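The passage that follows is intended for readers who have already worked through the single-chain material. We present the inputs for a multi-component assembly, then the predicted structure in tokenized form, and finally a short commentary. You are encouraged to pause after the input and sketch how you expect the pieces to fit together before reading on.
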Amino acid sequence: MSELVIDPMVPGPAPAAPARGRLALSWSRIPLSGRIGAALVAFWLAAAAVGPFLAPYGVGAIVADDVFEPISLRHLLGSDYLGRDVLSRMLSGARYTVGLALAAAAIASASGCAIALFAVVSRRWVDEATSRLMDAMISVPSKVLALVMVAAFGSSIPLLLAIAAVTYIPGAYRIARSVAVGLNQMDYVEAARARGEGRLYIARHEILPNMLNPVLADFGLRFVFVVLLLSGLSFLGLGVQPPHADLGSLVRENTSGLGQAAPAVIAPALAIASLTIGMNLLIDGLAGRSAGVGGRP
Amino acid sequence: MIPLVKVEGLQVCGEGGPIVDDVSFEIAEGEVLALIGESGSGKTTIALALMGYVRGACRITRGVVTFEGRDLAQARPHELEQLRGARIAYIAQSAAAAFNPSRTLLDQVVEPALIHGLMSRREAEAKAVELFLSLRLPDPERIGGRYPHQVSGGQLQRLMAAMALITDPTLVILDEPTTALDVTTQIEALRVFKSVVRERGVTAVYVSHDLAVVAQMADRILVLQHGQMREIGSAERILHAPADEYTRTLMAAARPKAAAAVAPPSADGPILEVKSLSAGYGRRGGHKVLHDVELTLARGASLGVIGESGSGKSTLARVIAGLLRPSAGEVRLAGEPLPQTYERRSLEQLRRIQIVFQNADTALNPAQSVGQILGRPVALYRRGDPGKRVRELLDLMRLPASYAERRCGELSGGQKQRVNLARALAAEPDVVLCDEVTSALDTVVAAAMLDLLAELRRELSLSLVFISHDIATVRAVCDEVAVLYAGRRVELAPTRDFAGPPHHPYADLLLASTPEMRRGWLEETRASQGGGAAPPADPRLCPFLPRCPVAVAGVCDREPAPVRRLGASGQALCHHTAAELEAFQRAPAARAAAGI
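Having made your guess, compare it with the prediction:
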């Protein structure tokens, strides 16, 4: 029937199969900086998970002979302003910092994403109303809100979690909405609409899977913001309360050791820095990878 | 005579191996060489290598590229900088992407001359105006003061040519310079390029996938496939006596066969009727795109809709599919009026009309597998067991069943477009709206897609609305053709009537502007200057008036055009009678003389 000598569409050489799915991270494509970031983040996740079991001393136990002891074999990171073991306190503090930040960032990203999807597939006025409400929330300064809330209700872990999550929902919403609006214009979403699909199906099956990459990158950023917010609150003495401490309160309670260059103040500060920088490197590595995909072959 | 350019054993490697391998050719001074091939054939890679440039992760791994006796593959960056833009110039496919939108055109056109310090700004500007004149740009003295968005696509392409020619380069590389243009705009660009190349004695490399366009421009043709040379020779010989199998395949694909006669439409009334439909975008359809369009699609028939970009073709498909609310008129399916938007239509009504979007890359969800994409409509409309239907559909599309597991990113362009079509067929629709389904495909792949569509029509007795800008494509698939211009249906006629006159003057222009695969066509065709002119302000007047070569002053600019009969069943929106139109269109020589 056909006069064509070759049929270019029978199996033939299809383009080399790329990674399955968008989330399949191929380690070889992540640049060195991203790998360093991944290693740092993995280290802190592990510290949060098993740290307290590895701690050589109790969190509140006064075990050293002196305050602000330097690094020694008995106390690997020295002792703090009361003579407690800094390493042990950091290993348990990491759990609060990493755990709280992960939970808060997850809540913020998930809620932001869900609200954004809802707004985008709804009628225009719903979208407008939601967006203006979120804009109003963005205009509230996060630290001041946190101060007021802590002053009103007293500091507790659930309250800190709620503050951190609520503070970052509008930002996560903004990012997720801008991505979803773009995807909502794609032909495959139009096709689904013309087919008679419901809004829930379109949000869940057509838009959401294609949003995951940017939303995950944003989740990493939110995580860093929450770490800094919680550390800031703890530094002001409004965060996790003694005898427990997160990394931020460790820095604050040992500030008097600065003059003696005590490891007790430097180590937790370095810990916060390595966690946030590591997360940023990892995100940049992943973002660079996905940016390289769409170009002309 | 020493050739200006000499390429020997060129190999360019990318990440996955050679993109171009063992390519050798020469270009004599003043000669135009065409590189022709489908996407992925390496033609742009070779063109860029002629400037000593390779993209991204690619490298020239072997061979020499000699320009004026110097090997560019080994040249140092600063030596290349001196050549590029001064001795060798490049005209890219998309002028819209090549111009900076925030600077005036003249600023950008004179830039190469200023960068290379070849002339003062004053001299460069004078030279630019001179070039604008020879490139037949309107208002050459002042067009340079405009910004890129203030001129048309065809004008922008010519402005880019001016930018390339301002330094009087020895070698000009034209990379698909007219591919993004409408046929009526393309013809003017081609004429201008050709005369400029001839007048200035420039040596040129013309990269294109379109043999008919190349036939007008080239002295010699180099045919490429998968980065390797298939054939090189004079344009005359390649076009009339191709030696290579692949060249013949390309030639066959470039001339789709006219539609085989399909079973006559059954008598039980039209399946789809579009009744005096108007639609637009913006607040309450403020920017009107469709005016009073009237169409009828018989059961089992295939209706072509053609027109240039902006004629409202895609808008028509979107209104029929309910994605855009019409401002007036209605769409009837099997005699029943359909609700205006998809939200009000029943699932059964939605099922019966399916739309196939132009670009399979954006029409298929990259996060889903082919099986999920095809299975969803089956499940949604309850048309049997999804798994079984997916296998049947893949079989219908001549794709292996194992492709159900793949994602679209793992398919080639033609395969993706087949999946795109299969998704529409999964709903077992009465009417399929095909919006430019072959435009994004390579010639050979597009020809295979057209064959498949013709076969599917026979097998499934589909009713098709086939939208395209290419009259040859429409002729290959459709029984009847509607010509849209500025949102109005200016002509409706059976496909067989498109073999010759009479036609509405716009349809005639379209036909005369479609390149034919022979040398000398460009000089002979009667197509007049195209593009640019906006329809008259009064929406009741003929939209084609400002461009019409046979407009009658005092009539066409005063009264709305009546609908005239053309032949047995055709209709045209024109003041002239069929006989008058035929007389105009039968005497091209006389008209060409009058036009100049």
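Commentary: Chain B touches chain A through 56 residues (CB under 8 Å). Confidence is low (pLDDT under 50) at residues 589-596 of chain B. How closely did your sketch match?
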